[in-house]
SH3 domain-containing protein
Amino acid sequence: MSDTVQYELPKGKLGLKGPMTRPAPGTLPLRGDLAHIALAESHLVPHYVIPQFYTVGDDPVELKLDANAGSDTLATLASGSTFEVLDHVGDWYWGCVSAKGPSGYVPRDAVTPDAA
């Protein structure tokens, strides 16, 4: 089992605090419909997700900008590294390396869930 981060739920009142610049795709684990729970105090989306921790298999895997093999590669995740899964899209998982990014898609068969 890999060492994983425990994320806390936000405390206090959440709300809009003025205009913000949307980060570039593939940076923070943030989409228009959902975001990593660690971003709840700084970004407004309809849904926040507590990640499920997965481990990259025996081979390194490319983190893709979109859910297809021809998409731009954002990073290469080493064998045995942790990937935080936030959503599944067909044969792909969308998630991140950490709450600070990068975020993107990996094939579902490239990672396995960590033991509870």
